[in-house]
Here is the input.
Amino acid sequence: SRVEYLNYAVLDDHGWDLDDDDLFGKAAEGDLDHEDYGEFLVEPHESLLEAAENRGFMWPFACRGGACANCAVIVKQGELSMPVNNILPPEMIEQDIRLSCNGIPVTDEMQVLYNVKHLPELEELRL
Ligand code: FES
Here is the structure.
């Protein structure tokens, strides 16, 4: 799968909205660092987090076991499996929040916002 990624932390800097349908278009033209925006391929045996790490990126994580939500991402396009989830309530899954530590892309193309652990509702969840 080909994954286009964007760091949630840069949205504020640019005044971009999470719900903007053209968010990734703006990011593509935004002259961002490779660490904040770009794409990579995920091999079939890799979780999304592992793939990011194997390509040299440092995405947030802690437990690697589906229990902390530090590794949370928002899936803007495509779908990420979530075999282990002991933290996200149904309403967050409904908002396309997923766990990258064990999630595996199930579509050929994906767009994901990583580093969303700073979303207010996720901060609360981790208290
Ligand atoms: Fe803890 Fe993914 S690293 S849920």
Summary: The chain has a mean pLDDT of 96. The pocket of FE2/S2 (inorganic) cluster is lined by residues 61-64, 66-71, 87, 99, 101 (CB under 6 Å). The longest helix spans residues 48-54. Helices lie at 10-14, 23-28, 48-54, 90-94, 120-125.
